[in-house]
């Protein structure tokens, strides 16, 4: 079956879907995106992603392209047309198409909206989580508003490729003080050597992950002590456990950092329990 994409009001064959050459997302990375995990044809953490989408658009002064209800219908229809049971649905909104010029285009220029959906191999992800994955560190060279989920991801791409070149799953980016900010597409966590669960607080320098937020609610419900405080690369290497969270990775245990074994080199009990609880809740509450 051919895949289907939604582009500016039209459902069309994925292989033939196009945007204008002067779309500002293409020329300036002037746009935002969101990705929902799909379980049994339904979207997980729906409200969180939708709320963050509206915040990102507002921060960049991009017009909200359609009502929440209309956008929800488009997302669900794209999932349906692609017959996705388990996978992702991707939404991108840009400032639209206009003559190439750095300032915003004329008021009333309609935003561009693209939606795609595809299946993802859930069994493979489960196997990776059961074994644990490798992480490498990489300098954080991104701009100062990483709290906005912009499509300007070149530094993230370079970090992710650096990880791939070294045979690792993910790169954890490190600031000028030697502190881990976040992964190239994930939020970073450790259980430090004293047994405290730690993740960096969300300011303008990292993204407030939706999966991160869901995990934090579970942590609170379980009465686990959480320390929202930055940690260094050395602290991460000395940790009892390390893991990262994201819409596509859920909760993924990291068993090595820059080749240094974390704990006993196996997924730890906290990461394993949080992954199980998150997947259970995500499937139950998906819409």
From TrEMBL:
<dbReference type="GO" id="GO:0004084">
    <property type="term" value="F:branched-chain-amino-acid transaminase activity"/>
</dbReference>
<dbReference type="GO" id="GO:0009082">
    <property type="term" value="P:branched-chain amino acid biosynthetic process"/>
</dbReference>
<dbReference type="InterPro" id="IPR001544">
    <property type="entry name" value="Aminotrans_IV"/>
</dbReference>
<protein>
    <recommendedName>
        <fullName>Probable branched-chain-amino-acid aminotransferase</fullName>
        <ecNumber>2.6.1.42</ecNumber>
    </recommendedName>
</protein>
<comment type="pathway">
    <text>Amino-acid biosynthesis; L-isoleucine biosynthesis; L-isoleucine from 2-oxobutanoate: step 4/4.</text>
</comment>
<keyword id="KW-0100">Branched-chain amino acid biosynthesis</keyword>
<comment type="pathway">
    <text>Amino-acid biosynthesis; L-leucine biosynthesis; L-leucine from 3-methyl-2-oxobutanoate: step 4/4.</text>
</comment>
<keyword id="KW-0028">Amino-acid biosynthesis</keyword>
<keyword id="KW-0663">Pyridoxal phosphate</keyword>
<dbReference type="InterPro" id="IPR043132">
    <property type="entry name" value="BCAT-like_C"/>
</dbReference>
<dbReference type="InterPro" id="IPR036038">
    <property type="entry name" value="Aminotransferase-like"/>
</dbReference>
<keyword id="KW-0808">Transferase</keyword>
<dbReference type="Pfam" id="PF01063">
    <property type="entry name" value="Aminotran_4"/>
</dbReference>
<dbReference type="GO" id="GO:0005829">
    <property type="term" value="C:cytosol"/>
</dbReference>
<comment type="similarity">
    <text>Belongs to the class-IV pyridoxal-phosphate-dependent aminotransferase family.</text>
</comment>
<keyword id="KW-0032">Aminotransferase</keyword>
<dbReference type="InterPro" id="IPR043131">
    <property type="entry name" value="BCAT-like_N"/>
</dbReference>
<comment type="function">
    <text>Acts on leucine, isoleucine and valine.</text>
</comment>
<dbReference type="InterPro" id="IPR050571">
    <property type="entry name" value="Class-IV_PLP-Dep_Aminotrnsfr"/>
</dbReference>
<dbReference type="GO" id="GO:0008652">
    <property type="term" value="P:amino acid biosynthetic process"/>
</dbReference>
């Amino acid at each position: 079956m051919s895949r289907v994409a939604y582009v500016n009001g039209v459902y069309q064959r994925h292989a033939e879907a196009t945007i204008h050459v002067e779309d500002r997302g293409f020329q300036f990375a002037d746009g935002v995106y969101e990705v929902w995990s799909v379980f049994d044809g339904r979207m997980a953490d729906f409200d969180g992603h939708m709320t963050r989408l509206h915040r990102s658009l507002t921060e960049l002064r991009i017009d909200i392209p359609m009502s929440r209800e209309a956008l929800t219908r488009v997302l669900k229809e794209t999932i349906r047309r692609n017959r996705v049971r388990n996978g992702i649905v991707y939404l991108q909104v840009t400032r639209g198409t206009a003559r190439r010029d750095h300032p915003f285009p004329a008021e009333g220029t309609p935003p561009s909206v693209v939606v795609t959906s595809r299946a993802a191999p859930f069994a493979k992800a489960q196997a990776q989580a059961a074994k644990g994955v490798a992480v490498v560190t990489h300098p954080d060279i991104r701009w100062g508003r990483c709290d906005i989920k912009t499509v300007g991801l070149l530094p993230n791409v370079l970090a992710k490729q650096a990880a791939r070149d070294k045979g690792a799953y993910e790169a954890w980016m490190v600031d000028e003080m030697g502190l881990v900010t976040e992964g190239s597409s994930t939020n970073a966590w450790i259980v430090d050597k004293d047994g405290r669960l730690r993740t960096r607080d969300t300011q303008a320098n990292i993204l407030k992950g939706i999966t991160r937020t869901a995990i934090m609610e579970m942590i609170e419900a379980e009465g686990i002590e959480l320390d929202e405080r930055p940690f260094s690369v050395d602290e991460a290497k000395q940790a009892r456990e390390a893991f990262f969270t994201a819409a596509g990775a859920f909760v993924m245990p990291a068993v090595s950092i820059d080749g240094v074994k974390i704990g006993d080199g196996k997924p730890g009990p906290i990461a394993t329990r949080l992954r199980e609880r998150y997947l259970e809740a995500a499937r139950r509450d998906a819409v």
